[in-house]
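Predict fold of DnaK suppressor protein; 110 aa.
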Amino acid sequence: MEVTSARQRLQQMLADLDRSIGVLRGDPLSVDDRSPADAGSDLSDADRAQAMLTVATTQRRAVLDALKRLDEGTYGRCVDCAKPVPEGRLEARPEAARCVQCQGKRERRR
Ligand SMILES: [Zn+2]
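Predicted 3D structure, encoded as tokens:
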């Protein structure tokens, strides 16, 4: 993938993530004015929002890292084995830091 189009896509992703994170954080998720009958669903809504916030924050960090690699000229190379990350993988996930093998190893280790 072209570095310029990768940068554009990453910056677009970053803008979208910032907006989502803002919405998730700004949402009051308050249960104060709800009836007790709604408390259960409110709690799961809050849990879901928290989970989405965690995912968005993690992905935002990955996008920022990818932009940093673009600046450093190491974008498109696996951060673990330094082999080129396949084009198709970068098309699907421009923020990918690792090739499929290293990502797989990393996920198995978790
Ligand atoms: Zn690798």
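Residues 78, 80-81, 83, 98-99, 101-102 surround zinc ion (CB under 6 Å).
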